[in-house]
Amino acid sequence: MMGFINVNKEQGLSSAKEVAKIKFLTKTPCGHMGTLDPMASGVLPVAIGNATRLFDYFLSKNKTYIAVFKFGVDYDTLDTTGNLLSSQGRIPSRREIESVLCEFLGEVEQLPPKYSAKCVNGKRGYMLAREGIDFELQPKKVRIDSISLQDSISTDEFAFKIECGSGTYIRSIARDLGMRLGTYAAMSGLVRTKSGIFTIENSVRTDNLTAENIDNYIIKTQDVLSFSSIYPSAAEADKLLNGLTVKCNKPDGIYKFFDGAGEFYGLAEVKSNALKVKTKLC
Hints:
By secondary structure, this protein is of the alpha+beta class.
């Protein structure tokens, strides 16, 4: 069994627990393509079987979020699930917030939250933080394509639509936006509405999945990949499947590779007019 399920992760559950449900139903190793914090909900692509080998190809996928930021408060986790450090910050106006959003666009240096899965000397940041160990994380370059103020949820909470590249911490955007406005801000809600080709409109709650119906929700691996397809002849396919290269006049790049019988096999790479199998999936 191989493919993807577009899970709509439930708020309050860990990403690992959602994956475990899919693993139990399919009796197959599984993994998620981009974790969501327990307080967050929304799109969580889960890879089944050999589809987990495609993780690296999802690192650059664009993501879309609806995030709620609460202004005037500071938490150690940068979201409202943590310990409150201060509630004395002022509440900026909608006009003030909108006037600085453009400063957060493009490639920016972002400091990850200490309560995160970032590793420090082989140990997760959140584990060190919970133990009260002081440490520093290095800023990382992330890409934010758009950020727009959507609604006023309450007098101190505002909803934002954010489109960004993988690896962007939405909690860090809340912190940095608050600092830019001379106050505090923390994330109080988060829904991921899109991850690559996966959208929340086509997602499914794991509570609705059973061993009898799960096959209906598995998306074929080749349908998830945006690469062009390549169909070598039977003789060429035989060489490729034995680790050899064959001549190819297609542009350099990654392709979905179909074997001599027209069955999807995995990914192949064209480089300098030579084609070679790169990732075996089937």
